[in-house]
């Protein structure tokens, strides 16, 4: 009896995860995964051909933008996919909607992205450099968490996937444009913790990197809470 109960619970959880992924990604995630993998392989090959040293700094750089590509679709189009699937009205009828549905979905998406990035890190370990796969995955997840949460927040404000995508692209270009100003500061969203500036001590750089990670984590939490708060305003979505 106990084994059957555990099996039923496991099957229920697995079905819930599959269902949520089907709604979130709308059957298109495989294309983003393939694009991210192709992008990763292309950057890695070009970097090696151009004489880049395959170390932790290099691996972080080639993994960052494929990671952003992976998180882009589910966070920008998640709300619109709910609307298109006709499920948003049903979800608003669930008590504590924000905690029981979308918060679970956010966790599922970030966990899935982390697992995929670990796979990419493993490829880097095998073909490029003997990196710490867990540390590399964890470090990349900080900007992914920040940008993904920001996209989720804007999707609850704009309520349109294409509109959210445009806003995120504009903000991304702006962040890249300002990178020369923020490059060695805690405010750099794309800060590479493995890239220690030549004229700066490693201890000082580690302090800046730590503050940067705290900034990204705090920002992500604020974005998620604001997005969940917006989802309580039923009349704006139905």
TrEMBL record:
The keyword Manganese does not apply. The chain crosses the membrane at residues 21-46, 58-81, 102-128, 140-158, 165-182, 214-231. Keywords: Membrane, Transmembrane, Transmembrane helix. This is ABC-2 type transport system permease protein.
């Amino acid at each position: 009896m106990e084994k059957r109960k555990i099996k039923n619970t496991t099957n229920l959880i697995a079905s819930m995860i599959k269902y949520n992924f089907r709604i979130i990604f709308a059957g298109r995630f495989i294309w983003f995964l393939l694009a991210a993998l192709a992008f990763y392989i292309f950057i890695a090959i070009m970097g090696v051909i151009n004489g880049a040293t395959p170390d932790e700094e290099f691996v972080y750089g080639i993994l960052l933008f494929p990671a952003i590509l992976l998180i882009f679709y589910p966070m920008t189009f998640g709300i619109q996919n709910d609307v298109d699937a006709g499920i948003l009205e049903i979800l608003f009828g669930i008590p504590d909607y924000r905690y029981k549905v979308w918060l679970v979905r956010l966790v599922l998406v970030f966990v899935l992205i982390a697992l995929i990035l670990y796979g990419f890190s493993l490829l880097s370990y095998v073909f490029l450099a003997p990196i710490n796969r867990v540390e590399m995955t964890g470090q990349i997840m900080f900007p992914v968490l920040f940008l993904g949460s920001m996209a989720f927040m804007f999707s609850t404000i704009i309520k349109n996937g294409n509109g959210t995508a445009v806003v995120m692209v504009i903000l991304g270009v702006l962040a890249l444009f300002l990178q020369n100003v923020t490059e060695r500061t805690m405010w750099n969203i794309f800060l590479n913790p493995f890239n220690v500036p030549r004229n700066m001590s490693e201890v000082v750089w580690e302090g800046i990197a730590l503050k940067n990670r705290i900034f990204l984590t705090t920002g992500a939490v604020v974005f998620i809470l604001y997005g969940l708060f917006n989802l309580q305003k039923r009349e704006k979505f139905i």
